[in-house]
Amino acid sequence: MPITINGVGTHYYFKRNVVQNQGVCEHCRRQATLSDYDVGLFIVVLYIPIIPLGRQMIIGECNACGMHRAMPLRQWEQLREEAIESGLNRLAQAPKSADAALALLGTYSMFNQFSDAEGLAAAILSTHAEDYDTMLTLGAWYESRQQPTEANACFQNAVRLDPERLASKRIRLFDEMEAKKFSEVQKLAAALLEHGANENHAVLFLTAKFFNQHQKFDDAYTLFKGLLEKFPDLKKDKDFRRAAREAEQGVGLPATLVPAKKLGMLD
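and the corresponding structure tokens:
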């Protein structure tokens, strides 16, 4: 990053071609707005740009911590052209390959070529609609682009192809919560809890909070109890403790799941 002391040093000026996306900052690990853009790097005196040092590509600048990666713009452009050409060649050699198409989609996205990416995504949806894993990956891509309608279409296609897969059950769980079909939510949550995969605990925590929100405290309590049996470390999480106590109070029980802290430690 540029350094300026008492107005003397290096500084960025003349920002262009800003592209912003939502994501997790690789530096501070917070959900943030990440910006890519090209900018001039200058030697400055009294904050006045004096000597240009060339244009830089700023990659993933976080609006929370300000950290980012940087490289010479020409080098970035060369990498972009080489990566896209390689992806196009791979897809040309295997035009029916979903993996090749998804790899090129990722390359387009990495280098902010979103017009090309949108066209390719539509083509993937058209030609690989019967491929379960492709639909999940494409749905996640549409989610990252904040296009919920397209994302949901992909996810529902995956559910249609195999409703009993673990990922399908997670999708169905969110659908049933949105529809407030409590008995179906309870059944799907129980199935995911029985599976016990680590990636399920965040989804199930949201489900337990959903039961709390709708005063289904018996279902919430049962789910919190099951989560603690599968993932004991959850009792250290402040949000989990608060929500579990709400469920316990709702069913008229003392704080048995998450005992009160004592001298800074859990009992």
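(Above: one complete record from the training split.) The longest strand covers residues 8-24.
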